[in-house]
């Protein structure tokens, strides 16, 4: 099953096109793309047995963030060994966790405003929680996942790393810095949802390429570690980390430029497309 947000409405993407859930369910489920995760079991049971109408054509530019109002967004740093190595850091003993504020969420296609000349890319698999998870063991963690989607953890590196105390969450939360989509794909759609091809390109040049099976902390382990501290709620998002190939890890460093298009893809889910455009200029003054 492929679930999306089409012009602000909960929508299923089928072989024939887009199906509006509120209309197809005769009002049993509302139009809110976030609220459905609190009804996840009922929704899956309905969708599995529903005689859906024929879908309609849609424009990918009309797709919004697949979960526009999550209660919590978790993001994991240094979760691929090759990315930790290119960052010059040791492999973490525990998942490094920060957040991306939800006003940074965006749909899968659109403009990315560049506030500085040091905006970097990080392609990521994003997990959507479907059932409340508290003290969940890794072997049971997939039972709490509604599906997965494609994400970008765009990062303004100057703000992120300003001394003396880095500002990861702020540096990664400018407007549009968290595009997700094009759909939440349920895990039953994959032969192995834990090992998917992932990557991104800029103007056709490959920048990142890897597999999610290379995660240091797998999706089940992330859910186990996070849920041991606090409840994970239906609709919560987990950005699971990025493989190597980010701009800050290159020599010389390489960041996004106005006029470039960045395309992020994950096998079996789809792609994001952002066109880099000028944004309101942001100045960061480093501590002396």
Descriptive report:
The protein has 288 residues and is an alpha+beta fold. It has 2 domains: 2-58, no CATH class; 73-278, Fumarylacetoacetate hydrolase, domain 2 (Alpha-Beta Complex), CATH 3.90.850.10. The protein has 6 helices and 17 strands. The protein has helices at 21-24, 40-49, 81-86, 157-160, 168-171, 219-227; strands at 2-6, 9-14, 17-20, 73-76, 97-98, 105-106, 109-114, 119-120, 123-129, 145-152, 155-156, 178-185, 197-202, 205-211, 237-239, 261-266, 270-278. A hairpin with a 2-residue loop joins strand 1 and strand 2. It is globular, with a radius of gyration of 18 Å. The model has no long low-confidence stretch (mean pLDDT 95).
Please summarize what this structure is.
The protein is 13% helix and 30% strand. The chain has 288 residues and is α+β, with helices and mostly antiparallel strands. GO terms for molecular function: hydrolase activity; isomerase activity; metal ion binding.
Question: How many DSSP E strands?
Answer: 17
Radius of gyration: 18 Å
- Which architecture of the largest domain does the CATH hierarchy give at level 2? Alpha-Beta Complex
Kindly provide the name of the CATH class of the largest domain: Alpha Beta
Estimate what percentage of residues fall within beta strands. 25-35%
- Backbone shape: globular
Percent of residues in helices: 10-25%
Determine the number of helices (DSSP H or I, runs of at least 4 residues). 6
Judged by helices, strands and strand pairing, the structural class is alpha+beta
The CATH homologous superfamily of the largest domain: Fumarylacetoacetase-like, C-terminal domain
- End-to-end CA span: 53 Å
> If you consult CATH, what is the topology of the largest domain?
Fumarylacetoacetate hydrolase, domain 2
Order of helices and strands: EEEHHEHEEEEEEEHHEEEHEEE
Q: How many separate domains make up the residues?
A: 2
């Amino acid at each position: 099953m492929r679930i999306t947000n089409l012009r602000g409405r909960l929508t299923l993407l089928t072989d024939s096109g887009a199906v509006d859930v509120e209309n197809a369910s005769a009002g049993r489920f509302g139009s809110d793309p976030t609220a459905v995760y609190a009804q996840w079991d009922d929704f899956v049971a309905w969708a599995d047995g529903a005689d859906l109408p024929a879908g309609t054509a849609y424009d990918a530019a009309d797709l919004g963030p697949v979960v526009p109002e999550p209660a919590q967004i978790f993001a994991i740093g240094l979760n691929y060994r090759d990315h930790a190595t290119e960052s010059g850091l040791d492999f973490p003993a525990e998942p490094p966790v920060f957040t991306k504020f939800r006003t940074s969420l965006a749909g899968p296609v659109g403009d990315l405003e560049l506030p500085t000349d040091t905006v970097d890319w990080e392609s990521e698999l994003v997990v959507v929680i479907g059932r409340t998870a508290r003290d969940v063991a890794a072997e049971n963690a997939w039972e709490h996942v509604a599906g997965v989607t494609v994400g970008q953890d765009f990062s303004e590196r100057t703000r992120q790393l300003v001394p003396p105390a880095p500002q990861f969450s702020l540096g990664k939360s400018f407007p549009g810095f968290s595009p997700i989509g094009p759909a939440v794909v349920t895990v039953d759609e994959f032969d192995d949802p834990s090992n998917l091809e992932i990557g991104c390109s800029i103007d056709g040049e490959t920048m990142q390429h890897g597999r999610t099976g290379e995660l240091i902390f797998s999706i089940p382990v992330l859910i186990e570690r996070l849920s041991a501290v606090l409840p994970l709620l239906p609709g919560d998002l987990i950005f699971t980390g990025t493989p190597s190939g980010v701009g800050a890890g290159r020599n010389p460093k390489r960041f996004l430029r106005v006029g470039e298009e960045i395309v992020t893809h994950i096998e079996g889910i789809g792609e994001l497309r952002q066109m880099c455009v000028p944004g309101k200029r942001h100045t960061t003054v480093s501590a002396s």
